[in-house]
Amino acid sequence: MDVQQIYKDAHALLEGHFKLSSGNHSQFYLQSAKVLENPRTAEALAAALATQIQEQGIAIDTVCAPALGGLIAGYALASALDVRYIFAERVEGDMTIRRGFEVAKGEKVLICEDIITTGGSAMEAAAVIERLGGDVVAFAALANRGFCRREHSSIQSKNNCKLPHHIPFFALADFDFAMYAPEACPLCLGGSIAVKPGSRGN
Ligand code: ZN
């Protein structure tokens, strides 16, 4: 499965001059929602991810996704794994589990995102699950931004990866493109102005 091509075909790999949520600049931006607008594509990607996880023999009771980014990928993955699905959401900045979702003591939970960058939101969701007594046994994402080491890839974790080394991380592809501090951004030096993804309808 050529995930990079799927992103390109769905116009989900945007090229331009972007200001990322980290404050860094990049020539590219991944908009997974564009890939997932086709439910059949979402199902196919989730099935491939589920196969990787099952081949590793990891038992999962529940998939938990941090909203908003992980919602669709998490739901599709839970369906492919045939397990329960819950989501975590931010309330006044803090990740929480609401809506009557319960987590049993020792319940084996996989945290699913659309894209793992440094894994910050995934780790916040993992902390909530563990506080409730659950056991976080794996992380998964459709795409890996290249900061964390995933199974089946030669990319090594960088210093800013927040995922723990002892829990497996599954993803379908690496999108390891360059990011720049604003003062060192070649696109800025070339005179262009970075835009926040979303500010022009993307
Ligand atoms: Zn720039």
Description of the structure:
- Helices cover 28% and strands 28% of the residues.
- It is α/β, with parallel strands linked by helices and 202 residues long.
- The protein has a domain at 38-177: Rossmann fold (3-Layer(aba) Sandwich), CATH 3.40.50.
- The protein has a 6-stranded mixed sheet, with helices on both faces. Strands 1-2-9 form a 3-stranded antiparallel sheet.
- It is globular.
- The model has no long low-confidence stretch (mean pLDDT 94).
- The structure holds zinc ion.
Radius of gyration: 17 Å
- Count, helices: 6
Please report the total strand number as a whole number: 9
Distance between the termini: 25 Å
Based on secondary structure, the structural category is: alpha/beta
CATH uppermost class of the domain at 38-177: Alpha Beta
**Average residue-wise pLDDT:** 94
Summarize this entry quickly.
The protein has 202 residues and is α/β, with parallel strands linked by helices.
Quickly list its features.
single chain; 202 residues; Rossmann fold; 6 helices; globular; binds zinc ion
